[in-house]
Amino acid sequence: MNFIFHRKRISGILTIVPANERSFVEEMKNFNFPEARSLKLKEVMGFDKHRIVEPGVCVSDLAVFGMEHLFKKGQLRRDEIDALILVTQSPDYFMPPTSSVIHGRLNLKQDIFCMDINQGCAGFVIGLLQAFLLLEQQSIQKVVLINADVISRKTSSKDRNSYPLVGDAASITIVERDVEDSIIHANLKMDGSRNGVLMIPAGGFRLPSTPDTAVLEDVGDNNLRAKDHLRMDGSAVFNFVQTEVPPLIKSLLEFAGVSMESVDYLFCHQANRFMLQKLADKMGVPYAKMPSNEVEHFGNSSGVTIPTAIIFNLQDRLVTEKFKVCIAGFGVGLTWGAVLLNLGRVNFSEMIEYK
Amino acid sequence: MKSLADILKEIRPEFDFTASSDFITDGMLDSFDVVTLVATLDKTYGISIDGMDIVPGNFKNLQTIETLLSKYKSPK
User: Fold this and answer.
1) Looking at chain B, which residue has its C-alpha nearest residue A279?
2) How far apart are the C-alpha atoms of B19 and A85, rounded to whole Å?
3) A40 vs B30: CB contact, 8 Å cut-off?
4) Which residues of chain B neighbour A45 with C-beta distances below 8 Å?
5) Predicted ipTM beyond 0.90
């Protein structure tokens, strides 16, 4: 599905990562594998460091910490927020919406549109599209898009397929109207028939959590996991990405009438280094144009990896320069989408640690 | 240049890869071993195996891997 938006822009990005940094080498003993094999994987997949929240830390804690930081620095005022979108798969509660929890903790005005969106690795794309749609309303001038997840709390530390890659983080992206006649193109696709490829089987109403669903089971390849934990069919995800993402991006660029050569950066969801480099090879995109270095420093934090990769790679240049950027997210659902936009000369671009 | 058998032996030294016709079903290569193998083959032969070709069927035994490699090593 194609989208086109006019006069919208990202005016600031803040990423919040937990101060607690864990290393793959230290965690290797948790996995039932020879060290030599794990070390080979470290190189190929980009397993190195990842940021994990301390026990008890929730999505609203990371979000409120980041928002208060922006208020304190004068980069955002409470009374100018017309909409607050939270994209997460790890809400504080089933009910109320975590966006309401954040709204309450921040004492935001009542004249506001708050919503939760349950999305994962395509969550930055989905959140941006929703923000652009809201900005079509005259009453909405400024949208705060929060992507946040603490999925480590739902991942087995004895599952080598998932745990080394998982990271916790939040990002706050300010989306508002642009005085320039900017044009943003987007393309989004979904396939719910493959919803089981990435899931947490227990804990919802279909299969409520019980002592039985918390029991670790041998799920093959020497990995131990409970039904309460994240389950990822790595091979199916890999093949999904390699099959669906290149035509998605090709189709978006054709829709926009833009060549890949004129795109400065392609920021994809940071799943793992191997997957991204294979994707780059398939699309003939130089690695320098398509960074894959976020996951080795911070871990895969679902919808937060794209803003984190943008800040980590462009840093202060995002404040002074402007880039033509294609962003692409893909994951749970299955969902895959891409946005082509001009990004830069933002009011702030910063990464902070949650302590 | 290392042979395919040498490369497999480095990844899983405990197995004799000449004695199996299905490395996957025999439990000799798991999905992450396949990833390590692809990265090693790419580096050794200066190729980039297409992501669409990274499916279990192409890594069943020495012959299927050689067939896959011939697709990338043969002159275009």
Assistant:
1) B51
2) 57
3) no
4) 32, 35
5) no
